[in-house]
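cron nightly-structures :: item 1 of 1
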Amino acid sequence: MTETTSEPVAVLPAARRTGTVVALFATTDPADFVTAAVDELALHLDGIDGDRHGGFERRSSGREPWYPRGTPIRNDRHLSILSREDLAEIARRLELPEVDPRWIGANLVVAGIPQLSFLPRGTRLVIGGAAIHVEDQNAPCRVAGRSLARRTGLDALELGFPRVAKRLRGVVASVERAGKIAVGDTVTAHLPEQWLYRG
């Protein structure tokens, strides 16, 4: 009889990283993808007041092919979080002077946390009195590419942005603890223990 082990292939210990909030953005028109710069955000357990991604639930999309499109599910996308470093790399790959985070619907831009787009699910970002729970890597989409193309006049970016921004588009997160956050606040990322499962 062959024995099996319950040990995973690899385990990374829990860790902590710190960075700084360098920009904050909010929706001015819930029908518009583009966000506007603000000095602070009030985070509630159902997201940001008036934001297009606010609410306790959302409708499933192509990101959740295991549900019929439009199924009500828990909202795990209250915030779109990007890093200044990843934005600079996207701009370099697209040969642009910059990628304005407002154009791609950002809510929060952080500096100083290496490879922010690879923060694992379950990471807690503690900012002031608020806490944000990282849900997933944010896959770049044509909606963001179309917005970028419209504002730069470069039609090729509608498809070019999703191609080059893969794994650089930051993360999406939900609010775990309500509170206010402001530009200049310290961000403490509490990374959980990680393991590689191969079944």
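cron nightly-structures :: done
The first helix runs from residue 84 to 94.
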